[in-house]
Hints:
The structure holds two protein chains of two kinds.
Chain A: E1 5-7, E2 10-13, E3 19-24, E4 31-37, E5 44-50, E6 53-57, E7 65-68, E8 75-79, E9 88-95, E10 106-107, E11 111-115
Parallel strand pairs in A: 2-11
Antiparallel strand pairs in A: 1-3, 3-8, 4-5, 4-9, 5-6, 7-8, 9-10, 9-11
Chain B: E1 4-6, E2 11-14, E3 19-25, E4 33-38, E5 44-49, E6 55-57, E7 60-65, E8 70-75, E9 84-91, E10 99-101, E11 105-110
Parallel strand pairs in B: 2-11
Antiparallel strand pairs in B: 1-3, 3-8, 4-5, 4-9, 6-7, 7-8, 9-10, 9-11
Amino acid sequence: EPEVTQTPSHQVTQMGQEVILRCVPISNHLYFYWYRQILGQKVEFLVSFYNNEISEKSEIFDDQFSVERPDGSNFTLKIRSTKLEDSAMYFCASSERGQNRYNEQFFGPGTRLTVL
Amino acid sequence: RKEVEQDPGPFNVPEGATVAFNCTYSNSASQSFFWYRQDCRKEPKLLMSVYSSGNEDGRFTAQLNRASQYISLLIRDSKLSDSATYLCVVNSDYSSYKLIFGSGTRLLVRP
């Protein structure tokens, strides 16, 4: 069964450093997403991406964040200057369909980001 | 009012029991509804979409009441492996890609 993969599984970084989280979405999916989950809290939407551009983003997704699809398979989330409060599990997701219909989103196993 | 509201539980039930979870959502423009399950420190896994007519998948039945903005999930013949957190999820509105997650209802199935 096709699945979303993410690397690394755990990333530890110092405050102020840049991190890049990587994802390989399901191959025939066209819509890609990043969510995060702070420990003990609910899953929160960060950004959606379609046709090589951001289609929607949340208030959390400020100028420190960026996304890219550098090639035909990878989808990345970059945090330019990490803060302590960026510590969370980051999930990548993908879907075949977009808005206006049931866009069943399938999630990767996540990258646990720890900012010291 | 929270966008998606769920009873956090935990629901502690014996194997074989039937258990029901409920969820309410605040935005009447939401178009798509889902139940996901999440095991501890793992990713949300799609359990089922919830359609207006209600739908069933094996031991799982989901219902949607648009007028009351209410979604339910019924699990029959609970198994130990059903122990997890069940997340009620809706899309933001008809023009949005964003999924809004509830905080989840924790289920513990005991032998």
